[in-house]
Amino acid sequence: ELSRTFATSLPGGTYCNVAAAAPGDCAGNTVEVGDDGKAEVTLPAKGALALHADAKE
Asked: What is the pLDDT of residues 17-31, one digit of tens each?
């Protein structure tokens, strides 16, 4: 398991983790990005994280 705060260049909001979510369904696979562009994330072993601007909910 990995817990870390990542700096992103994304605006604040809720984003779909497109590496873990099923196509068209982000249920349980969202990440909150703060107004400062930072996201606190916990990933399981061998987990992956992928966020992009078009994945904002």
From this structure: 999 999 989 999 999
Q: Residue 27: which CATH number?
A: 2.60.40.1180
What beta strand segments (E) does the chain contain? 2-7, 13-16, 30-33, 38-43
Domain count, the chain: 1
Range of the domain at 39: 2-55
Judge whether 51 and 13 are in contact, CB under 8 Å: no
- Prediction pTM value: 0.90
Q: Which 8-state DSSP code applies to residue 26?
A: -
Q: Residue 39 is encoded by which pair of tokens?
A: 């996201």
Span 47-53, average pLDDT: 96
